[in-house]
Specification:
The complex is a heterodimer of chains A (313) and B (556).
Chain A lengths: L1 H28 L4 H6 L5 H11 L5 H13 L13 H36 L4 H15 L2 H15 L15 H35 L2 H8 L4 H9 L4 H25 L5 H10 L3 H29 L6
Helix pairs in contact in A: 1-13, 5-6, 5-8, 5-11, 5-13, 6-8, 7-8, 7-11, 8-11, 9-10, 11-12, 11-13, 12-13
Chain B lengths: L3 E14 L2 E14 L3 E5 L6 H8 L7 E10 L2 E2 L5 H7 L4 E4 L3 H4 L6 H12 L4 H14 L5 H4 L9 H13 L5 E5 L7 H18 L2 E6 L2 H7 L2 E6 L2 E6 L1 H6 L4 H9 L13 H6 L19 E9 L5 E10 L4 E5 L6 H8 L7 E6 L2 E2 L17 E4 L13 H12 L5 H14 L16 H13 L5 E5 L7 H18 L2 E6 L2 H7 L2 E6 L2 E7 H6 L4 H9 L8 H5 L1
Parallel strand pairs in B: 3-8, 3-9, 6-7, 7-8, 13-18, 13-19, 16-17, 17-18
Antiparallel strand pairs in B: 1-2, 1-4, 4-5, 9-10, 11-12, 11-14, 14-15, 19-20
Helix pairs in contact in B: 4-5, 4-7, 5-7, 7-8, 8-20, 11-17, 14-15, 14-16, 15-16, 16-17
The chains are: A mainly alpha (313), B alpha/beta (556).
Chain lengths: 313, 556
């Protein structure tokens, strides 16, 4: 198992290298002289030259790439052009809110979607099943920002149960922290709840047809035991896969959600960096997201082997 | 022992389908006494399994008992709900199934699966349940039970999985065990071991058993009383001796005739009335080949190794003359299917030579063989007619396809005539040609498969268990068809099967394979009547013989 994980990590290295190359090339893919692009519209030729010198843009591409990678391997993501702060510091400041939002959303999604899917599969064809599936279609079709604004209007402005927007760090208490995350998590989670509930239902329906479920019934097992001990674990591989893909998609969703609810997270930082053409920051964030995605994929693959003894690497 | 344990009274079961309610069981009345083993025999669709499932309350959601009673110890099983039902299932009454590997949860250790059943019905600790599970594994004679407790179903053989199922079923000492085709799909020797085990356990624990099977021989060997079902009804109920000696009902007569025995001939497989209807089946003696005729097929030192593993087949040599039929028998894993596929040029041999009609064809890569001029000479009939037909091809397309690919036909009337001719030769009614596989019965699909294989007039037909998925009465007709095709068209048959009775009837010569090597070969009848090796003897002895009568029932 350990050797498998090590081999998997090793095999992600080329992927990360290609991602790094792409991220670095961002600057050069954009039309025009990178120094001019970074300097912006109002810059004087001297400013452009200063930027060119400070970023080493006058050196050959491969040497620049090499030294950039070298610095990254030492934990140096560069310095923001706009704030002059190290990119790693800026990302570090914004990591907490985004991680909190993603965690709460993920937890909410799994806790709500999987039981809903199981229930729908168990009662397939019934009114409950149809209601859950109707809700799923509804959840699919609503954009995050619409759900976000509606939720904020109803629960924050009208009912005043929860704060409208903002973020409170966990250090200031669990409830204040959670209070600020409930509405964004629901808004962001809607699509994933719908998606995972549907996948769970479909997979469970197939598993419930299997001979071993009939065996479980023949043993006299109760409905709960059949559904959760024998069926759900067999349905787990596709569900885990979709949850993993969901995590990757959450990263994109978080950008929008953070804007709607004014959460000072990585999503906001990304938008700000793009608007300011703060390339080192953009590069740092994209690199981080790619890294997280590769890590999540690795975790999914490892989870398969835990769930299904037939999967061996 | 005449205490009545189960009484099924005028049972009706219906399934709701898209085309409305379909009655699967229509008025079954049956009693089972404590401790007895009753055989419930019938072909697919006869309602025998549905009767078993209704009794165990395991019908699919679509199935419903529409009338009748199932009294188990005087209590109507059909009316049980909730906890009362669960106290019955797996405790007083339990069931084992066909295809044991699928019946076990693939991702749960077998020890846990046995313990599940115990913990559902007994208020004991998990450790105690584990200890009981271990005892049960010993009771079903699984070697090294401590290690097997943590094994998963995919790590066990089919026979082992069925033993685990039996362990689960007997874990709470049921009064009634319902065994639904418990040995179908297992090797003939494994089949005997598993059935002996069930019979022993049932006798030792005083457990009544309903043995649901399509195999009359199997029922006759283990049961003192057999009920024959046809289309949802019991048509006859008698002791095996009466059933085989003097079957009363026309359907029983047909079934008895169709069941191959150690002495039956192809012609015996249908009853006399039927034979007259198919008067065309005239056995014409095959003309003897002149000496010195080169063999049609010659295989020399064939071997196949799949990556890393041991050789699946090693040092396999044989020859076949044109129009000859050769049987290839052995248990699963013996390499018989691998060999047949190599000869058919569907997979590449690792070593050795295949010479067909004087030309070496072994070196042509299997993926290029479709361009060889010998492709149309060597054709194959596959095991499962349900799985081996493309669901989007009509019967016509299926037969026409090889004609267009290999005989260069371009469609039109000529093609239509050839396809219809093929259909006629295999006895497939022409009005079935536009149908898709799911609209055909198992026997009809088998005919489509054979018609496709003979469409290009091959000289060698390789058949991989062509009747294993078919009912005995359909099997009888298919075997007669194959025999007739061989005689009429001089097609050589390489017949791969685990059913020794069938091989004995159909094949001039038989080759016995074990672990990828030839154990014994010779003229079929001589080989089976006087096996020279222990292995062949074991195979022959494991076949349930109808004539010998119920072994265990006589001993009781």
């Amino acid at each position: 198992m350990l050797s498998y994980i090590l081999r998997r990590i090793a095999s992600t290295l080329p992927v990360m290298a290609i991602v790094a190359l792409f991220v670095f090339s961002l600057l050069y893919i954009a039309p025009g002289d990178p120094a001019v692009v970074i300097a912006g519209d109002q810059a004087s030729p001297e400013d452009v030259e200063r930027i060119r010198q400070s970023l080493g843009l006058d050196r050959p591409f491969l040497i620049q790439f090499g030294s950039w990678v070298w610095r990254i391997l030492h934990g140096d993501l560069g310095t923001s052009i706009f704030t002059n702060l190290p990119v790693s510091t800026m990302i570090g400041q914004r990591l907490g809110p985004t991680l909190s939002l993603m965690m709460v959303t993920l937890l909410l999604t799994i806790v709500v979607a999987v039981p809903l899917g199981v229930l729908a599969a168990w009662k397939a064809g019934s009114l409950i099943d149809r209601a859950i599936m109707a809700f799923a279609v509804f959840g699919f079709s609503l954009p995050v920002f619409v759900v976000g604004y509606v939720l904020a209007y109803v629960f924050a402005l009208e009912l005043e149960w929860l704060p409208v927007q903002g973020y409170t760090p966990l250090a200031q208490g669990f409830w204040p922290w959670l209070q600020n995350l409930i509405l964004p998590a629901i808004a962001l989670g809607c699509v994933y709840i719908a998606l995972i509930a549907r996948i769970t239902r479909a997979t469970m329906l197939e598993v419930l047809q299997q001979d071993y479920i009939r065996t479980a019934r023949a043993k006299g097992l109760g409905q709960g035991g059949i559904l959760f001990v024998h069926a759900l674990k067999n349905a787990a591989v596709p569900i885990v896969t979709v949850i993993g893909i969901g995590i990757a998609l959450l990263i994109g969703g978080a950008v929008v959600t953070e804007s709607v609810f004014a959460i000072p997270g990585l999503g906001r930082l990304t938008i700000d960096a793009i608007l300011r053409r703060d390339y080192p920051v953009i590069q740092g964030i994209v690199l981080l997201f790619s890294f997280v995605y590769v890590l999540v994929n690795l975790m999914i693959d490892v989870t398969y082997t835990l769930v299904d003894p037939r999967i061996r690497y | 022992m005449s205490e009545e344990l189960l009484r099924i009274d005028d049972l009706h079961v219906a399934f709701s389908t898209r085309r409305g309610m379909v009655e699967a069981v229509r008025g079954v009345t049956l009693t089972v006494e404590a401790g007895e083993m009753l055989g419930l025999v019938g072909e697919s669709g006869s309602g025998k399994s549905v009767t078993g499932f209704a009794t165990a309350r395991l019908l699919d959601a679509a199935g419903r008992v529409t009338a009748g009673k199932i009294l188990f110890r005087g209590q109507d099983v059909t009316k049980l709900r909730g906890d009362d039902l669960r106290q019955l299932q797996g405790a007083a009454m339990s069931m084992i199934f066909q295809n044991p590997r699928a019946a076990l949860n693939p991702i749960r250790a077998i020890g846990l699966q046995i313990a599940d059943a115990i913990l559902t019905h007994k208020r004991i600790s998990k450790d105690a349940a584990r200890a009981e599970a271990l005892e049960l594994l010993r009771a079903v004679q699984i070697r090294d039970p401590e290690a097997r407790m943590n094994a998963y179903p995919h790590e066990l053989s089919g026979g082992m999985c069925q033993r685990v199922m039996i362990a689960i079923a007997i874990s709470c000492n049921p009064a009634l065990l319902i065994a639904d085709e418990p040995t179908t799909g297992l090797d003939v020797t494994t089949q005997k071991v598993v059935m002996d085990l069930v019979a022993e356990i049932a006798a030792a624990r005083g457990m009544a058993t309903i043995l649901i099977t399509h195999d009359l021989g199997l029922a006759a060997r283990y049961c003192r009383r057999i009920a024959v079902m046809e289309r949802g009804r019991i048509v006859e109920e008698a002791s095996p001796r009466t059933l085989f000696g003097a079957p009363q009902h026309a359907y029983t007569r047909r079934l008895v005739a169709a069941s191959p025995t150690a002495t039956s001939q192809i012609e015996d497989l249908v009853t006399e009335e039927e034979r007259e209807r198919h008067a065309a089946v005239v056995s014409k003696p095959r003309q003897e080949l002149a000496h010195g005729t080169p063999p049609l097929l010659e295989v020399r030192k064939l071997a196949k190794r799949f990556d890393e593993g041991a050789a699946a087949v090693a040092d396999f040599s044989m020859t076949m003359a044109g129009g000859e039929s050769v049987g290839l028998v052995g248990e699963s894993g013996s390499g018989k299917s691998t060999t047949s596929r190599m000869i058919c040029r569907l997979i590449d041999p690792s070593e050795g030579e295949i010479v067909f009609d004087g030309q070496s064809i072994g070196h042509v890569a299997s993926r290029d063989f479709h361009r060889s001029r010998f492709r149309k000479d060597i054709q194959m009939v596959f095991q499962d007619p349900n799985e081996s037909l493309n669901p989007r091809f009509t019967a016509f397309d299926c037969i026409a396809h090889p004609l267009m690919r290999l005989d260069g036909m371009r469609g039109g009337d000529a093609l239509r005539k050839r396809v219809e001719d093929c259909a006629e030769r295999v006895g497939l009614p022409l009005d079935l040609l536009p149908r898709f596989p799911h609209q055909l019965s198992g026997g009809q699909k088998a005919r489509v498969g054979i018609a496709r294989a003979i469409a290009c007039r091959p000289r060698l037909l390789v058949l991989d268990e062509p009747t294993a998925a078919l009912d005995v009465s359909v099997q009888a007709v298919v075997l007669q068809l194959l025999d007739r095709l061989r005689r009429e068209n001089d097609i050589a048959l390489l017949f791969v099967s685990h059913d020794l009775n069938v091989v004995r009837m159909l094949c001039d010569r038989t080759i016995v394979l074990r672990n990828g090597g030839i154990v014994e070969q010779g003229e079929s009848r001589a080989l089976f009547d006087n096996p020279k090796t222990d292995y062949t003897r074991k195979l022959v002895e494991a076949i349930p013989h109808i004539e010998t009568g119920p072994v265990l029932a006589a001993a009781l």
